[in-house]
Specification:
single chain, alpha/beta, seven-stranded mixed beta sheet, globular
Length: about 950
Amino acid sequence: MSDPSSTSGPGVYQAYQGNTYLFGGNAPYVEEMYENYLANPTSVPDNWRSYFDALQNVPATDGSNTKDVPHQPVINAFADLAKKGTTKVVQASGADSELGRKRTAAQQLIAAYRNVGARWADLDPLKRAERPAIPELEPSFYDFKDADLETVFNTSNTFFGKDTMSLRDLLNALRETYCGSIGAEYMYITDQTQKRWWQERLESARTNPQLNADEKKHVLDRLTAAEGLERFLHTKYVGQKRFSLEGGESFIVSMDELINQAGVKGVQEIVIGMAHRGRLNVLVNSLGKMPADLFAEFDHTAPEDLPSGDVKYHQGFSSDVTTAGGPVHLSLAFNPSHLEIVNPVVEGSVRARMDRRADPQGKQVLPVLVHGDAAFAGQGVVMETLALAETRGYFTGGTVHIVINNQIGFTTSDPRDSRSTLYCTDIVKMIEAPVLHVNGDDPEAVVLATQLALEFRMEFQKDVVLDIICFRKLGHNEQDTPSLTQPLMYKKIAKHPGTRKLYADKLATQGLGDTLGDDMVKAYRAAMDAGKHTIDPVLTNFKSKYAVDWSPFLNKKWTDAGDTAIPTSEWKRLAERVTSTPANFTVHPLVKKVLDDRAAMGRGEVNVDWGMGEHMAFASLVSSGYPVRLSGEDCGRGTFTHRHAVLHDQNREKFDEGTFVPLQNVADNQAPFVVIDSILSEEAVLAFEYGYASNDPNTLVIWEAQFGDFVNGAQVVIDQFIASGEVKWGRVNGITLMLPHGYEGQGPEHSSARLERFMQLAADTNMQIVQPTTASQIFHVLRRQVVRNLRKPLVIMTPKSLLRNKDATSPLSEFTKGSFQTVIPDSRDLKAEKVKRLVACSGKVYYDLAKKREELDREDVAIIRVEQLYPFPHKAFAAELKKYPNLVDVVWCQDEPQNQGAWFFVQHQIHENMQEGQKLGYSGRAASASPAVGYSHLHQEQQKALVDGAFGKLKGFVLTK
């Protein structure tokens, strides 16, 4: 691998030592802490006790397993003897002192190789860089001489199989283990059990693969398949983009081993996410897609039955394959060109599968993420996804990461430009995931590294990284000329015979057949000509009991009805449950008032507010067998303190106790209600929930933004998956987005959920965009999302001030009868023939308009609310216009600036339903580069002007039908 050479100054390991908490300047503090531990282990903090416990497992300098004892009593005893004059000082001999120093140095040498031995590993197939100078890996750094090579040292703290070894043998063992074709990084792991696990696995085998003849032939077969497919496509479809895997064929060997060994270990599903490099190869040679089907896509003879479709190297696929442990279902996630964005989507899909199987540790479902080296180091969503790995709501049992490290991005290969870290994988150290760097030209080492990575994941349920160092034979795509920017690299690549050829030659020298490699090449080419596999592992008639049947959710219309009202008796039963708390559970006085008020709402004594309407939607769903999963920043309480889905005992004594979730206790055998306060991430968390919803159509999956405008941090997810996933890939998805939106003078960043962006993306009936204004509306729209079988993303512009606005409350009757209204008619009993103007609006501004009309006592103005903005409810909207026979003009009024909000989208929808001669006008804020102003007085002036304008003379843009 192309690593920067070390510079002058302290060595790598020295720098590492000097920056730890064991640095010499902290010695007195550490000694005192250790002394306290030896006297009483429970007297020191847990993290120090864990560290000192581990020290007790380290052999003494004499090789014995004697445990340490408190030092101070021994020191005091010697001091007393000295005072009595009965002792004399004996100087240690020079020979004894020097032997002690060498013993210590031998242990330092072991530690150095474990820490930084990977820097000397033989990793780069192109051998472009000289081995860096790392003094700590040289015996001379510790003042060892040639004469010391036969000196025997204690090695009982290693796993080389000997309690003592000569320095020569020890050095050879360390280099064989840590500096061969595999470079292991794991010493930064805090957990001593995991650290010792790696030492035992690596050192006991000296990191040397042990494959029998049949296994070696199978490896060669997979290399032949990987290379053969690429060369077949390269000659048959000249110049067509495919993002070839050539130079990284060992990746297919790794995938083959991973799938088979996972099956042996009890994994029943593997979900794979990867970008385009090598994707076609994985489809054919790992998932078993028929070559003929792939060729049809190149020939443009494959079915094209989607509104949009996508290029072949973005396509997903699924299959069931045979392994030594039984059938394994493989899913390759659909992926756009935005590289690493698929990572959290895969993780969400895996979590849904785990939940369906009641597999909380991920023993049956395995996420596999395949990365490019440049993207892995450069894309922020990688860090966000890693940050989810150990959290309760997003845990997936550990991910196996595989980096196809071809040592170049598009045209960038100089590490001084491509990253600020030594390795592209250094980002994973934030979660202490171990890394195995492996030379792609050593496929047997790739097999061993894959086995170790999977074994670690299954043992500890933690992420692990396999970094396959290889090269990219062709350019970024097949039409590129990489030598323009990498002349030296591509001179070396041009001379490289290929991994398959190297390995075939190696097996020939081992007596496995001089023509074995050529015979496999011919057989594979013949299979490709026939459009078939040489070996077909796919099970065509197998179906898991955990497979999801999507057929009930396909080809549905947005106008399909759904029974969203619930009986009064059920309402009251559920209301009593969601407002009850356990005995001896003390809620905060403010929360107590909320619960008391909600209990009154449940009894029908007062109107129902937004928080209660939302709660009752959730309660009625889980009681009926529909799971609910709600996640986002602070969504347990709610950003605006309206939800209180999680109650906290004010007298609890431990941080991880004393919570109660009423919605998890509404009925016997109810469906799960899960509410998650997410990490401070939008992109990864929203993508995770999209992935979850893509694999579970029966769960109401909701992502809530802290403020609506924060959703712009996840715009890639919205553009590439939520808005276009169905028309590109045929993937239906029922995810719900709740985005707080409303202009209340909170400034540019806390006013708008950027409604206009969703409106711009709305086409092909791809999503539902609503802005409900009453408690009953949020109740019905949430229930509608799962009660009816339409699965389209639902984007809800949720309110802020309306959460506590009494005008936005609803009577109990609106929950036990009726449904979601796409358009809410005027609430007043107007004389239709007197109405000259109709003001149409959406959201909070309605209440400002209604108040203004009361002040003006205008009987000639009707106000209607468009609660569903897309798909636009033409039938309901037209019915409102027809109510008023003398209507002269229609005004669209909105809080947002003219170039934002819904105006540019709805104007032609409204115009379509108007009568000839009627005029359409606009009243709202003027176009603006910012969503909202930051000056409160200016906000108030603008708000007053737009409300007044709705009742005044038409100005500016006026469109006559």
